Amino acid sequence: MVVRREKKLSRFVVGKGKKLVLVSLAGLIWIQPVVSLEWFGGYTSTAQAAADQTLKSSEEMITSGAKLVKYQYKTTRSGKQVTVLADVIEVDLSNPYVQLNVMTGKGGQVTTRQSVEGMAKESGAVAAVNGDFFATTGMGVAMGGAVSQGTVVTTPAQLEGMYAFAVKTNGTPIIDRFAFGGTVIAEDGSTFPLTGINQESYKTEPAQAYSHVNNMFIYTSAWKSLERPTASATTPTEVLVQGGIIQQISIKAPIPSAVPADGYILRAHGMAADYIAAHMVVGQRVDASYQLSSLTTGEEINPADLQTMIGGHTLLVDQGKVSAFTRSTTGISGGSPVARTALGYSQNGKTAYIITAEKNNNSSGMTLKELQNFMTSIGVWKGLTLDGGGSTTMVTRPLAETTAGLTFTTSNGSAGQRAVVNGLGVFTTAPQGTLKGLVVSGTQSLLIGQTASYTLKGYDNYFNPMDTSGMQTTWKSDNGNVTWTGDSFKAVKAGTSQITAISGDAKTSMKVNVLGGSDLKSLTSGTTFASLEAGTSVSVPVTAELKNGNKVDVPAESLKWEFTGMKASVADGVLTVQSVNKGANVAYATPKYDGFSGTPIVLSASAEQIWENFENVTYPISFTGLPAETKGTAMVTQGTGSHENSKVLKLDYDFTSGTGNRFAYAQINGTTGKGIPEGSTAMSIDVLGDSSLNWLRAEFEDADGKSVYVDLTRMVDFSEWKTFSMDLTAAGLKQPAKLKRLYLVNLEDGQDERSLTGSVSFDNVKFTAPSTEVDSSFPSVTVQMTVGQKSMSVDGKKQNLEVAPLLKGGTTYVPIKYVLDSFGGAASWDNVAKKITVTRGSVVLELTVGKTSFLLNGSPEKATVAPIIVGGRTLVPLRLVSEQLGIDVKWEKITKSITLKS
Q: What is the pTM of this model?
């Protein structure tokens, strides 16, 4: 659509909505219309920056004019040096074949959300990052202004200290605070101020006035929601305009339809609504003019002169130096090391920097001050922060590949990418070029026994992919660490190999590292407990943590398994118990890789136990929904049907408002959740359906604080009570864990086939977990030892010791064999890892010589002392081992004697 900007015509699409208030953490701002924000100015010292170190680790072309540069940023926190991984896309703004542009939600529409990878795929971006801050419980609208190819997508709201990044059509970058101003012109020549385009409701700063009261806004077809907007505290008068002519006027009531593609809707309240009633008539012409302006210089900017604009938060760098914060950073966890996203440009204005700091298993994130220091170290002249934390996502297209993929694992881990409201994309406009080079495409790291396929791909002189499908390729390896099988390579033994692809006179190579047991720090299964009975089948996905800190999923074909107390097998990642050894009430399945022994999986007698029947709930249960328009309740009430004599949890929902995927949650114990029995392998639950065809799920929080989702049923196609059983081992739920929410999902795809309103109920939530009787079957004895003596007594009977207990640094050390011989259990020694694995009932304890860190049933723990080697024998800290195994320890200082009891 076209509107008038004084004598020029400027295009504008839909934009953002409500301006919101900061109340959150980890870089994600939650915006609420009633909370005020305090402006804050501060400074950072350059002393720390001098001690920090920035090291470039690699760089790779993405397309002509854009390259990915990876850095290691070393800094000191609490007296310890830490290394943060940072990823920077450098964009040459003078290159005619590359452009930056804002990407918005799904289909370019405001009030929708999508992952950065999804937006990049939809828009064709070769690289992208997440963008502006937004309200996670809001409508899905960015907080700041956005412009795409001269078209206004959102206008900046009246919040203090918020900066935005823009690029003019001539390639000049801008970082500034912007204001929006406009005028609506009726046919009679009268005018009324235009406050914004496609904004959510919010409270302005510093006036703390409601944004939509007495004001007029424009909403375009890019605004997908039928509500313009929600929670505005106002009754709207709306005017539909098409072709510059008023088609419909709805006084004090919204127009109940979406904005047409060839028009827009004027949305007014109070004095603005009175103006419409007095000056507008159906069939008359109406025009609008608008402009952006700098809040620092007063310069007016025609959006048509902008290639792109995207909103951010505080200024971070100015004139090449660390800047004072222009807004409070408390709500974005400014002082905490989290994942970060930022934008900046160079002193000559020729280079744009798109920056992320990783927070994952390999990197600890950055504070805002660390981010400032890093940005100045790589040449940023002026820069700002974008949304961070769980939103921080970067996707890049590897050389010769056709699509952009994740550059690194987000801080959400296995939960995947967060759906965000917008992002900044890098786009190539280069024509098809000539073949410049070839690359081998495939994994650079293999595990022994693993097979992997590789392909030969090409790129042109603009570093864009070329079709090489017609090339005849021969493959070979330079040694026997990997072998060619005819259609793939197979890793045979640990070490480095160079694989080479040859096509005619052209060839290219890639180094592949085959990991050995000596590269591993730990080897653990996502399943730590299982039921010990013939026929039991559980998923046993195994993850290896490498000594360099990286974690890799281990393919089933790379593992060997050792079984104790049972006959069993593992095929395609599933452990099946064939029979249980006579007299065994506990068994173990131990994964092994290249001589490295992993954490044993404990199998024991299991029992199903009622976790919640809702008869006597002592914790809060509440409702929440997404998007914000979703309504409903969650409460404990009297049951119906076959459950009429018991209490149940009832979840009512109303999805009739809002757009996109919709969610109705019954929250367990507020936002905290409630712990489930440790070692749970299965869950069952009774559900009263409503034949809505919606999707029913449970959300857990695992031991790492990550969300794990389990399907109860993909389709609620029943209206009676039914019992559902779920295998928690298949979900990879790392325990201890909590159940946080039971919820319904109404997917956008096929939404017309599912009910938008309804009610489901839950009862008798049960979990299957190891029986506590397993650990009560060991002998009850009393053992006495004395430091320096090569004997001990067991229930008064003397036994000789090969090695006397040793007192060192206030800690008593003994060979673990003697403790286990008396109290039950077993120990094994891994010479590769210098590790002792102790098993006793349901307890698996892994101790490494010289390391105070240890694993307890696969979970990392910390001790104050470590196992030692004395005279060629490995001794363990007696108190640490005994207490972890449930054995009481008493120390007599005068006689230097130790008494153990169980």
A: 0.69
